[in-house]
Design a protein that fits this description.
Low-confidence stretches: 1-54
Number of helices: 10
Distance between the termini: 54 Å
Strand order of the largest sheet: 3-4-5-6-7-8-9
Radius of gyration: 22 Å
Number of strands: 9
Mean pLDDT: 78
Helix content: 40-55%
Shape: globular
Length: 343
């Protein structure tokens, strides 16, 4: 419980700190850098490293700059409520009645490391939602992206710590590294021009394992977050935007993207009767290339800020589209992840 309230406190501090910074007078050119508070000096140094160009502008005109204390209060309350709900869900799904001393595990064989794609996406996507919340509250775009990445990384790391106290799980260094990388990748896509046209996306279609409730650990109830056989992860490129530099963007429709993806196969219950003695033998990764959709181009911007928020959020989901698997097999999917193949 102490760790839970500490997490909430850090999020509130993250929300309020930018507002306090904006409320202070901006130093003039004659002000010594050493007279600036240490926190602001650290933030300024980090921004000089990352800000090789101006931060990408918000795609939503309803997100405004300038401190709005009412919105800050709403944002703080909403984030606290959301995190509380997530904690309760995860407590019941994984941690309840399974407490143990803190311990570390190495789980490289588990899901053939495919779960690391999920941890990467979890931190990346949660950073996006933190960013939306901070910018809606009026936090400066540059500071919002940095605070969002820190918040996403902190939340995921908190989950890893809780796993470390669960008897059926454990703190995984690989999972923690993937969490940090996902949050960092979100920040870089907001700052680095070479990455601005890339989105990391997720797709899901319930697997046989999920529909028949076949968890890896007997006695547990399988939830869709752990249904890795039904999940796929994609690095999606905005081809239209990438072609702008060459002046031939009209050669490619703005609503159509191309994605490189990874999916899991055979990630069902562990086979403890495997001839090799390795219960993970049947598990492997599939690599695919697929068409993808840009919902920001397909769906017009609305006068409703909430609808625009939903549209932007869904743009991190990969919807069924033609795909070609190039490893380990060669086959064409009419609409992946639906298992309708040619060849």
């Amino acid at each position: 419980m102490t760790r839970t309230f500490f997490c909430f406190a850090m999020i509130l501090v993250g929300l309020l700190s930018p507002a306090l910074l904006h409320a202070q007078a901006i130093p003039t050119s004659r002000t010594s850098f050493n007279t600036i508070p240490a926190f602001q000096r650290s933030l300024a140094s980090a921004r000089r490293v990352l800000d090789t160009t101006n931060p990408l502008p918000s795609a939503d005109t309803s997100i405004r700059s300038g401190t709005d204390w009412t919105r800050i209060g709403i944002t703080a309350g909403s984030l606290t409520a959301a995190i509380t709900a997530l904690h309760i869900y995860q407590l019941n799904a994984w941690w309840a009645n399974r407490r143990a001393p803190f311990h570390v595990i190495e789980d490289g064989d588990y899901q053939v490391n495919f779960d690391k794609f999920g941890h990467l996406f979890g931190a990346y996507y949660s950073s996006y939602f933190f960013d939306e919340a901070y910018r809606w509250a009026g936090v400066d775009t540059a500071e919002s992206a940095m605070l969002a990445a820190l918040s996403g990384a902190f939340w995921e790391f908190y989950v890893e710590i809780e796993d470390g106290f669960a008897s059926d799980w454990g703190f995984s260094r690989g999972d923690a590294k993937s969490d940090m990388l996902g949050a960092a990748f979100y920040l870089m896509t907001r700052r680095a021009p070479i990455l601005r046209d890339i989105k990391y996306k997720w797709s899901y279609f319930p697997s046989y394992k999920y529909l028949h409730n076949q968890p890896d650990i007997p006695g547990q109830t399988l939830n869709f977050i752990e249904d890795y056989t039904g999940q796929s992860y994609w690095f999606s490129l905005d081809v239209h935007a990438a072609l702008k530099d060459a002046g031939v963007e009209n050669a490619w429709p703005s609503w159509l993207r191309v994605a490189l993806g990874a999916s899991g196969d055979g990630l069902g219950p562990m086979d403890f009767n495997s001839p090799t003695g390795n219960p993970y033998d049947l598990r492997h990764l599939e690599w695919l290339v697929s068409l993808d959709y840009d919902l920001g181009s397909l769906i017009p911007e609305s006068s409703s800020g909430f609808l625009n928020f939903v549209r932007r959020g869904l743009n991190y989901w990969h919807f069924p589209a033609p795909a070609y698997e190039f490893s380990p097999e060669h086959r064409f999917f009419i609409l992946f992840p639906l298992k309708m193949t040619i060849g």
